[in-house]
Sequence to fold (371 residues):
Amino acid sequence: MKINRLLLFIVLLTLAAAAISPAAYRPETVRVAIARGMEEVRVDGDGMLVTDDKGTALAVDVPGIVRRSGGGTLVMGGTTSRRFTFASPSLVRINGRGYRGVIELHPADKGILVVNELPLEEYLVGLINCEISSLWPIEAVKAQAVIARSYAIYQKDNRKNALYHLESSVMDQVYNGADIEDSRAARAVKETEGEVLVHAGSIIQAFYHSNCGGHTEAAVNVWGADIPYLQGVECTYCVNTPPARWELTLGLKKIESLLKNAGYQFGTIREIRGGRLNDSGRLQNLLLVTSRGDAKISAVNFRKAIGYAVLKSTSFTIRQRGDEVLFSGAGNGHGVGLCQWGAKQRAGDGFSYREILNYYYPGVRLERLKN
Ligand SMILES: [Zn+2]
Fold:
């Protein structure tokens, strides 16, 4: 029943996505959750206009501190509101970091939610140096601009009724504001202005990752949804790059407690073995020998429980020495869609961004958004 519901949800998402055609869509701005959970936020900026939840201009001192107060409200310099909005002719600084566009502060279940609304193309210029380096060959930087634009528009449509469209972390796309913009990032965004990837008339959910380790992953192996343009392809280009190989040692007790924290009830774990490999060469599942008998866990769920940044991919072998488990792995990330390090090496070998995109997203077309 649970699985059927999940499938229905995916189908509904897919149907919702089918509505976004590049001809009909005008993504002027995106809304990005740039911080959450803080009890207080420091705001600074030149010539700042501060408004409350009714759009009334407020006479509050900037720089200033916004704090969470009782009853689902925020307070700044003695003024209380359900929302504060900040706009500056230059940058709005949140805890010292500069952002373009408008900043909104909302009281959340825990602490303060900070949302940055800004023009999509400006968001992309700041994003480049968070996701890759603008010093990479320019065709790789342009490929990054196109996939980040496509991904942002897809998520904007998916979450159009939510308070924001995008997380600023690896959960969506990393975004740390305007301070690390540079001219090469701006050039890549300008030279691909408005360009998105399209499949069957719809803008694609352009997943990407750092390093595939030799073969990209099919979406069906990670999320259970078979997406025609997210099939695994061979990628020998990233194999000799620095992040392609990794090793990790974890104690059995540590693994046990991480799995427990993630809600699994396996009992005492005595041994961990790699299970079946999928057709991209990644582990489909792991076998656990426990005090309650043998158990199985999908490699995707195991990685999630251990931590995405700790266990870098699901492509690894396992050796056990006593209570220590040694993971020897390849790649970094879920492996779906474009491999950033592969794209870098391809661009270095003279491939254009169009060729790079066509390789990692088979069957897609590059189109320009109509205004
Ligand atoms: Zn790769």
In short: DSSP finds nine helices and 23 strands in the chain. The radius of gyration is 23 Å. Residues 211-212, 235, 238, 339, 341-342 surround zinc ion (CB under 6 Å). The longest helix spans residues 138-158.
